[in-house]
Amino acid sequence: MGLGRTTERGDSFVYFRDGFEIDFKFFTLSDASSVFMAEMTEIREAMEYVIEGGHGSTQIVSDSRSSLMALESTCEKRSFIKEIKRKIKFHENKIFLCWIKVHKGYMGNEQIS
């Protein structure tokens, strides 16, 4: 699953299975959203898509190192991040988060960046 680019109106992600694009989702962001919050929203929306769709083991890739580090932190205090972590754990840890370099030719990342 590739996470997307923040625009003035919203953000997006692409869902791939076996190298084929299965779905594309666009969602609206608040005008007050920071880049970090937009990246965290991408991860949350992608994760909810996986859970609600009943998808099995899924890798969510992101070029936002700060977002992934916040989700790995054991002393995170922000409630929205704790909620994302709780949902990942609830999904029997079958959602895997992975960092990739931006604009390096990765499927999904290049498509929506």
Explain briefly what this protein structure is:
The chain has 113 residues and is of the alpha+beta class.
Strand content: 25-35%
Which sequence of strands runs across the widest sheet?
1-2-3
Computed structural class: alpha+beta
Report the helical percentage. 25-40%
* Shape descriptor: globular
Supply Rg: 13 Å
Description:
By secondary structure, this protein is an alpha+beta fold. The protein has one domain. Helices cover 37% and strands 26% of the residues. It is built from 4 helices and 5 strands, in the order E-E-E-H-E-H-H-E-H. The chain has helices at residues 35-52, 65-72, 79-90, 109-112; strands spanning 2-3, 10-17, 20-28, 58-62, 95-99. The strands form 2 sheets. The chain has a 3-stranded antiparallel sheet. It has a two-stranded parallel ribbon with strand order 4-5. Strand 1 and strand 2 form a beta hairpin. Helix 1 runs parallel beside helix 3 (79-90). The longest helix has 18 residues, at 35-52. The chain is globular. The protein starts with a strand and ends with a helix. GO terms for molecular function: nucleic acid binding. InterPro entries: RNaseH-like_sf, RNaseH_sf.
